[in-house]
Write a structure and sequence with these properties.
single chain; mainly alpha; 71% helix; binds protoporphyrin IX containing FE
Length: 117
């Protein structure tokens, strides 16, 4: 169960970063559906990855006790910002270059936090 959600968390990551990278050479950069749905996927799967173990429903790995709440808090805030930027940005006329760049950068920062923190 835990690993299945983690797989979805990686698919969400692929969606938001993939949606960003694929527009690298486009003149009309913007928030595409892959970025919006990837952000929402990260929010939902991330909260499940935290909530299910913390309430004792699943065990991520042998000897797990708790996540680093500082790391989770930073990832959650960044993901909320990403999601708001995606919802606001997609309503603007193209190009939505600032929204596109901010969502891509914050998502890659979240990957770095996930791996190095
Ligand atoms: C754009 C948003 C996000 C990205 C790109 C992202 C990326 C990642 C990556 C790459 C991993 C695997 C790390 C590893 O196994 O070493 C991971 C794991 C995890 N993520 Fe996220 N994440 C995002 C949002 C969130 C959110 C919003 C939460 C919770 C509120 C969250 C909670 C977790 C947890 C609990 C794990 C497993 C434990 C860990 O490795 O820290 N993530 N995430």
């Amino acid at each position: 169960m835990y690993n299945a959600i983690l797989v979805l968390h990686f698919i969400g990551l692929a969606s938001v970063v993939g949606g960003f990278l694929v527009q690298m050479r486009s003149a009309d950069k913007g928030v595409n559906p892959a970025m919006l749905h990837g952000a929402l996927t990260q929010l939902v799967t991330g909260l499940l990855l935290v909530g299910l173990p913390e309430m004792g429903a699943v065990v991520p790995y042998e000897g797990w006790e708790s996540w680093d709440h500082g790391k989770i808090a930073v990832k959650l805030v960044l993901t909320l910002v990403i999601t708001v930027l995606a919802f606001v940005g997609r309503k603007k006329p193209l190009p939505q270059k600032g929204f596109w760049a901010a969502i891509g950068a914050l998502s890659i920062i979240n990957v770095i936090i996930a791996v190095f923190w």
